[in-house]
Every structure is written in C-alpha cells, then in structure tokens.
Amino acid sequence: MANSVTQLNNYFQGKQASHIVSWAEYSTGPSHAIKWTVQCKVSGEVKGTGVADSKAAAKEDAAKQALKALGIA
Fold it and tell me: 7 Cβ partners below 8 Å, 6+ apart?
C-alpha cells in the first residue's frame, strides 16, 4: 500500500491538479533534539499538520491528516 504522501500526490495528479498541493516545513529545538513541523496545504488552506523527530515522519502525518480532511481516506 502506498504511503499517505504518495496517495495524496497520486490523487491530485489524477485530477491534473497536483499544483494545488504545497508543503510548509520548519524545525524547532536544539540541533541534538530537532522537532519537525510540516503542514500540508491544498489551495493554500492547511489540511494537515504533522510534528515528529524526522521531516519525513512529520510530512507523512500531515498527508494522512489531509487525506482524512479531504475525505479521500
């Protein structure tokens, strides 16, 4: 099964609307304990926010939330 980021991208590519998905990411904390926050935006509106120790995990969580918010998953 595809991960949530791939599933979200595939969904919008199928609708020829992949350009409406964007990501905002930033980190906080000391270099030995960074926390990543990633927001998934669809048409500029935040649909999911993930916070994790790695950027990939935060992005995956944000995508999963976005899929649910959009009624895709």
Answer: 63, 67, 72, 73
